[in-house]
Structures are given as structure tokens and as C-alpha cells.
Amino acid sequence: MATIAETIHKPQTLRPSNLEDHGAACAAFNWGQARRALDASLEAKTGFNMATLAVDRHARSPNAAKLALRWLGKSGARRDLSYAELSHLSSRFAHVLQNLHVNSGEHVFLLCGRLPELFVALLGALKQQCVVTPLFSAFGPEPIATRLTLGHGRVLVTTTTLYRRKVQALREHLPELQHVLLITDDDGPLPPDTQDLRVLLDAASPTYQTRPTDAQTPALLHFTSGTTGKPKGAVHVHEAIVAHIATARMALDLQDDDVYWCTADPGWVTGTSYGVLAPLALGVTMIVDEADFDAERWYTILEQQRVSVWYTAPTAVRMMMRSGSAAPRLHDFPCLRFIASVGEPLNPKAVRWGLEAFGLPIHDNWWQTETGGIMIANYRSMDIKPGSMGKPLPGITAAIVERREDGSARVITEPDTEGELALLRGWPSMFRAYLGEDERYRKCFAGPWYLTGDRARRDADGYYWFVGRNDDMIKSSGHLIGPFEVESALMEHPAVLEAGVIGKPDPLLGELVKAFVVLRPGAKASEDVQRDLLGFARLRLGAAVAPKELELVDTLPKTRSGKIVRRLLRARELGLPEGDTSTLEAA
Asked: Which end of the chain, N or C, is surrounded by fewer C-beta atoms within 10 Å?
């Protein structure tokens, strides 16, 4: 298999990183010690509550007046919240739930964009020991109703507009939904059987004594779509914040004086783990932008808000790449020191583009909804092999394994050998269940190993390389071909913006490789371009791996977290059922 030999050496800097020596950190790290360090920081006997660790302990410290969150409204408004203010507001929301007789263990759903009230409600619900589920505000009515039903949602926090458009007509089919708390965004009267959240907050007390919380108490419910069938509800517990904090320190290099911007939507697990909990728990200042993606707006935010650490997604990087590296050079980013990306593998071209545009490489990392936090990363202190996921974090043991028929897993020790990526169970943010699906949960494990469903390989230097999902792999003439490898090669062509690759049944080959390509603006679709791309891929990959068919398309189906949905490309190509499409960008 071809490997990418290029290495980008770590940038020289006077500021030390949080993880200077990866090997030494792996040898010394212990999750028990990490948890005990947090226990020692709690002054009140609140147990191990995420919200207390994220905001209340800072509100009782010299950091009380420190800026926790700067919200940038899409119409130009701005709102600043200190750690003390965020603590008081979230305590008010905990009282709101208490006054509504919403008890610990009951499920609170959040359906809104990046608004201050989302942070307030999420933290307040955690204080009340409720289980919180943020939803994408772009969801349609059916996906919202499906998740509220599966998750036994009792409380929904949303905006007036979203409620009228997406929930109100289905309310009668949601008997467990008892309380709808609205963030009013128009001047009209409230819809029937709803309450004004701001009125409730104003009437509630700003002080709240969080009850002792066991670390294993359920805290978050994140839905993730399977290949087919209904969404899976991954359950995470309060102890997960131990991993959020440790991984944000090591993989994102977050430090006390950072201004941090995570662009992830709160309806995606990244937007919760690293867009709310980790940065607040570390006491940094967060930037929160309400508006949808706009490249010029993003460059302006990075510049004017003096962002130092930026966590974004490959889709956004590719969209910024459309205008080349000249646009960012019209801005000055004196504080920006670290850029990371997650959501799908970051192509080598995008890693290099970061150097052209910002003078910094973009550091890819890997994790899943089920892992709850970053598991494998390219670190600030480590050289990057573009296209690689990086190395496992301290406290995480990864391996390449082969599933056996008896349900066990054989660890593959030979380097550059493909297999399934597995993680040794036991890290704090590991999901504890699929809600109501015990058998489905058990099938995710083989002895002590969590089986990720991702195929990967580990090179001789210990770097991991993503190959594809188990169900994305293409078997052609006896060869196992990873779609990502083919997509990465196609994206090296100057006319290509995005590429998605599937296996298509073929009577001779078993499967042939078919590519769907989105061209860059200005490149015109033609048969000559198709032939050029097929020849380019054949030259780069060889006849056995290169696409046999290539179709030029306007867009590719993607989730809102930026992942290309290859199984949907395959379903459409073959006329098969599309399955759950609720997490798609255009759903």
C-alpha cells in the first residue's frame, strides 16, 4: 500500500506545549490521578458534577470575573459572560427545572443554534442531574420527533421560530414531552402550552446547591446514525469530563490565557465536548459565533477576537480553500498558534494549505461519538505526517485487530497491516450504553477491546492511518481498497474540490471503484476533465486501486459534522433504500 512519506516538522515556538514528550507522557499518565486532581479542586461536597467542574469552581475562584464566553450574533450583536455570570445563569436554569418538578435522570433536549441560552440550559440541566441531548437546529420535524421519542424527552428548550416550524404540529405525538421552554425570537404571542424561558430565568434564584453527583451518573445522550435503521443513543456519564479536560490539554494544547474557538455545531458531540465542557473546565475564554459559515467572517473573527486556538472541520477548511491562500493573507493573525480539525480524515492537501494560509499546519485528530473525546491526534509538539490520524493520547491504548468468528479479536503487531481500529476499554468518556439497546452495545466489544468499526493501519513509527469504515471497504479483484486513499489522491488534482468513492458491483471484478467528484469553481465539467481525472488517479494509485468510473457532481451528501456519507452515494447509485438521512446537511 502506498504511504505518504512527506513529514511536516513541528513549528518552532518559544511557548512550551502541554505535551512536550509524547512517549514520556504515555508512560507517566494515569486516569486515576487525573480524576483525583479534579476531585481536589472541588471545594463543595458536590460529588463529580460536570457543571460544577466546568463553571462553579471557577466562579468561586479568582477567575470569577474572567470572560468565559463571548457570543457574536449573526446580526452584529455581542454578549459577554464571565464565569460568575455563567454560573449564576445556569443555577437559575437548574431552579427552573426544579420548580417544574423535573428530577434527576429525566431527559432535557436542546434545539437551538449557537445561543447563550444553550450553554445556560446545558449546564443548568447537568446541575439538576438531568440527561442532556443537544440537537441540530437544522433537523427537520421527523428527526426531531424520532429523537425526542427514543430519548424520552420531557423538556425541550428551543426558539419560538423553531418550535412553530418543526415541533408544534407533532406535539400531540410526543406524550412524554411535558415542558417546552422557548427562547423568544419574535414579538408574537407564545404558542399554546409553552413557557417563556427568559421570564422563568428572571424569576429563579441565581444560587443553587448542586446535589452530590456520582461520577457514573448519566449526563449526556448523543444520537449517532447507523448505516441503516433508527439512530443510536450513546450514553455518557459525568466522569467523561475527566477525559474532556485531559484531551483538550494534550491534543488541543489549551492553556490558561488562550482565546479558543470551536466552530462545531452544539448538536454534534464535538460542540458539546470541546465547544462547551472542556474549554470551560479549563478556564479559557471561548468565542461563540451564531452565524453560518462565511469565509470572510471567519477570517475577521480569527483576527479581531485574537483567537489563539482554533478547532474546526475539514469541510470548512475545504470551503476556505476555494479562494486559495490569498484571502487569509489580507488579515493578520498574531495570536493564532494552533489549528486542529476533526470530523473526517484531513487530506494532506488541506494540512499543507494551513501552512500557506496561516503559517501553521492543521492538526488532524480522530474520535467518535462513542469515545466521547479525542483518542488519536497530531500534537503540537510532534511532527505531522499529512494524512495521518497521529498517535494515541496518553491514557489511550490503541491497536489494529482482526475480528475472529468466535467474537474475540487478534491484535495485529506487524506495521502497515490493515485491520480494525480497536481501543482498550476504560477511559472516562467511553460511552456506557446505547439507550435501550443492550445487545447492540455488547457487539461493540471483543473482550477488553472496543471495536470502532473503522479500518486503519499503524506504521513503523506508531502513526495511525485511516483507511475507511468496515462497511465502506471496496473489494476489487481480491484487493481491499480504502475509499479515503482514492479520495485523497483525487483531491491532489488542481481541479478537484471534493471526492467521494464507493464500490460498485461488477460481474468480473466483484466491485469496481467509482468516484464522485465536485470540481472547484471555475473548472468546467466535460468528458475531457473526466478522462484527465481518471488518468491522474491511475497514475497516482495504479490500475488495481484507481477508479474505473468517475462522475462529476455538484455536491456530495455529507453529515452536518462534515463526513461524506459514502453509503448514501452507494444507495443512490444502486437504487437501494437510503436509511437514516436525518444528520445530512440538506436533511
From this structure: N
Q: Which stretch of DSSP H or E encloses residue 135?
A: strand 131-135
In a 3-state reduction of DSSP, which class is residue 40? helix
Among 256, 245, 261, smallest CA distance to 71 is for: 261
Phi, psi at 472, each rounded to 5°: -100, -15
Contact present, 556 and 567 (Cβ < 8 Å): no
Residues forming beta bridges with residue 235, ordered by sequence position: 221, 433
Longest alpha-carbon distance in the chain: 72
What is the residue-wise DSSP string for 375-419? -EE--TTS-B-TT--BEEPTT--EEEEEE-TTS-EEEE-STT--E
Distance CA 56, CA 51 (A): 7
In this structure, how many other beta carbons lie within 10 angstroms of the beta carbon of residue 418? Answer: 18
Grid cell 448542586 in the structure block, residue: 210
Yes or no: say if 180 and 193 are a contact pair by the CB < 8 Å rule.
yes
Q: Mean pLDDT: which of 8-22, 129-143, 469-483 is highest?
A: 129-143
pLDDT given at position 225: 67
Instruction: Locate all alpha helices (DSSP H) within 100-157, ordered by sequence.
Output: 116-127, 141-150
Helices in 419-562 by DSSP H: which ranges?
Answer: 438-442, 483-491, 527-541
pLDDT of residue 353: 92
Query: How far is the C-alpha of 487 from the C-alpha of 349, rounded, in Å?
Result: 11
Rounded mean pLDDT, 310-329? 88
Whole-number CA gyration radius for the chain: 24
Asked whether the predicted pLDDT for residue 276 surpasses 50, the reply is: yes
On whether the CB atoms of residues 302 and 336 are closer than 8 A, the answer is: yes
φ, ψ (nearest 5 deg) of residue 55: -130, -40
413, 459 contact by CB (below 8 A): no
Average pLDDT, the chain: 91
Report pLDDT digits (tens) over 379-427: 999 999 999 999 999 999 999 999 998 889 999 999 999 999 999 999 9
- Do the Cβ atoms of 456 and 467 come closer than 8 Å? yes
How far apart are alpha carbons 565 and 238 in whole angstroms? 31
Secondary structure letter of residue 1 according to DSSP: -
Run of H or E including 446: strand 445-446
Residue 299 to residue 316: CA distance in whole angstroms: 12
Q: For the residues of 269-308, what is the DSSP string, one character each? A: HHHHIIIIIHHHHTT-EEEEE-SPP-HHHHHHHHHHTT--
Q: Where are the alpha helices (DSSP H) in 182-229?
A: 197-203
For residues 259 and 307, give the distance between their C-alpha atoms in angstroms, rounded to a whole number. 5
Interatomic CA distance for residues 119 and 110, integer angstroms: 10
CA dihedral 327, 332, 338, 342 (to 10 degrees): -30
Q: For a pLDDT cut of 90, what percent of the chain falls above it?
A: 75
Q: What pLDDT, on a 0 to 100 scale, did the predictor assign at position 221?
A: 98
Lowest-confidence pick of 271-275, 526-530, 541-545, 546-550: 541-545
Q: How far is CA 257 from CA 249, 307, 313, in A?
A: 13, 11, 24
| 468 CB burial (10 A radius; 0-12, 13-18, 19+) | buried
Quote the CA–CA distance of 505 and 476 in Å, as a whole number: 9
